[in-house]
Amino acid sequence: MVRQLDAVYERGVLRPLEPLALSEHQRVRLTVDDERTEPLSWQSSEPVNERRQEMLWLAKESTPYAGEWVALDGNRLLAHGPKLAAVRAAADVAGVAEPFFASVPDNDLPFSGW
Questions:
Q1: Is position 95 within any domain?
Q2: What are phi and psi of 85, to 5 degrees?
Q3: How many domains is the chain partitioned into structurally?
Q4: 113 belongs to a structural domain
Q5: 0.70 exceeded by pTM
Q6: Angle, vertex CA 24, rays to CA 19 and CA 27, nearest 5
């Protein structure tokens, strides 16, 4: 049977974008058409925001906010407090379109060991 499907090339492997009803180790013949012009449905022209600045801020600056929620925009603290709803409202007032919210863990974790 001949079928046409889309696949993505990742780390040296072609990964189909839909399930295939094939037996394990079944041989198939591939024809590669790499002239595709339209983006795949999951692709975007917008760069991915990996939130690196926020992650660095959490790693270096979050200690005073242990047990609280924080709202960040890059490395800028927008708001903090014990309730997410209040922190979200304060971030909205700051006018940031997509703030990053995180719950800072409490450093007073109970000791458990051998």
A1: yes
A2: -60, -40
A3: 1
A4: no
A5: no
A6: 90
